[in-house]
Specification:
By secondary structure, the protein is mainly alpha-helical. It contains 19 helices and no strands.
């Protein structure tokens, strides 16, 4: 298995070299591909059912803008340091403190892998029954699809990048065609006049949409470390988390509203697209879940430093598949809402550390000198997460968007904590 280990050429423990960098367009396409998946289409459909077309488009647009703007500074940190999110977190939280943060991130990413795998299995079951009259158990389809995704991800980021370059343009064209087909016998005024079941759902929808990609925003350095320039970070963020998310969810809105069906495979079958939808959705889920599995492996690899990455990936893939088979998709919306609360404080801390406190050096020789726990970062993380959860539960919101609330609350807490506990290492550019 040593060959497989060599295929994972972008180690979580080393910096990306200049020769391995790519354009913002390439990184943005991978991000775009992450958005083009079954959970995203499903979220768009749920939003439309609650709000109607106009308010759903507004909620998705606002959430996409928030995601794009939040991801730009995180992407810049990755491009300038060339490090994965997990090494950056180690410098900020300490050698042992970062383990707790990375475990949380690994669990959220594992949840995403499991959710996507579960949706994929359900979609395949619907497609096979409709196209060929077959009715294999959903768990077996989830198992087979996860194995395919695992093989792709073992070949690393470059394989995912090549897959995205092929799959994303194809998916965009297909989803446009689906929406156009759904509009064949329906006028735009009729669509615009469709009212949702719950107009008060607007900010909940924004929160849910932001929660659907907030982990990706926090972990932007995993992908942006491959971006050549700061400008590439901006274009990748706007293309992927901004336009990509808005487009993907909007493509789930129109067919769902017109057909009255929420499941993407179900409404595509209703539109007479069973065969082509089957192929396209395979590509969509394949690309996204490869990235989910890749990022989860990076998180665990930093904690389990002596275990080969390919072994970690196999174990993670098996656990995620098991969760999918147990029905994690039944709790999808609640999962998204809580992600938007517990994950942003991590980004708030490392962004404040980098941009406001000027701790912008991550020399490998300093890793041995890092404290086990950075008390300021750990205290801010715990306090910020608890306060964010309280705000979310009590609905006493600052911005009406829990993810933004989490950032707004955590950033000043970290600055106060840093005054109480000074950093043991000066990592500013002027430091010796």
């Amino acid at each position: 298995m040593s060959h497989l280990s060599q295929l994972l050429d972008e180690s979580a423990r080393t910096a990306v070299t200049a020769e391995d960098t790519v354009s913002g367009w390439s990184v943005g396409l991978v991000l775009f591909g992450i958005c083009l998946t079954l959970p995203t289409l499903y979220t768009g459909a749920i939003t439309a059912k609650q709000l109607g077309f106009i308010d759903a488009a507004k909620a998705i647009g606002l959430a996409s803008a928030v995601l794009a703007l939040m991801s730009i500074p995180a992407a810049i940190v990755g491009a300038q340091t060339r490090l994965s999110s997990y090494l950056i977190i180690e410098f900020v939280f300490g050698k042992k403190g970062s383990d707790y943060v990375n475990i949380l991130l690994a669990l959220t990413l594992l949840g995403w892998f499991a959710v996507t795998a579960g949706f994929f299995g359900q979609t395949l079951a619907i497609a096979l029954e409709e196209i060929w009259g077959l009715a294999p158990p959903t768990w077996s389809l989830t198992l087979v699809s996860s194995a395919m995704i695992l093989v792709t991800t073992l070949f690393g980021f470059k394989a995912i990048d090549r897959l995205a370059l092929f799959a994303v343009p194809l998916l965009i064209c297909f989803l446009i065609y689906v929406s156009k087909l759904a509009m064949t016998d329906v006028s735009w005024p009729a669509v615009l006049n469709i009212r949702g079941a719950n107009p008060d759902y607007f900010y909940t929808a924004v929160s849910t949409v932001v929660g659907s990609l907030i982990v990706g925003v926090v972990l932007m350095p995993d992908l942006s470390r491959y971006a050549r320039t700061t400008g590439d970070c901006v274009s990748a963020s706007l293309l992927g988390n901004g336009l990509g998310n808005f487009f993907s969810m909007l493509m789930g809105v129109l067919p769902a509203m017109i057909t009255g069906l929420v499941d993407p495979m179900a409404y595509m079958i209703a539109l007479g697209l069973a065969g082509s939808a089957f192929i396209i959705l395979v590509f969509a889920t394949w690309t996204t879940n490869s990235v989910n599995l890749y990022s989860t492996t990076l998180a665990v690899a930093v904690v389990r430093t002596k275990t080969p990455e390919w072994k970690l990936m196999l174990v993670i893939g098996a656990v995620g598949t098991g969760l999918a088979m147990l029905g994690i998709t039944d709790h999808f919306i609640e999962f998204l809402e809580w992600l938007g609360v517990i994950v942003p404080p991590i980004a708030g801390i490392y962004l404040v550390d980098y941009f406001l406190l000027g701790q912008q050096r991550f020399p490998p020789e300093l890793r041995a000198s890092l404290p086990d726990y950075d008390r300021a970062a750990m205290a801010a993380w715990v306090i910020g997460t608890i306060l964010s959860a309280i705000i979310f539960v009590t609905e006493v919101s600052v911005s009406n968007i829990p993810s933004l609330d989490a950032l707004v609350v955590t950033a000043p807490i970290y600055l106060v904590c840093r005054r109480c506990w000074h950093s043991r290492l000066n990592r500013s550019p002027s430091a010796p």
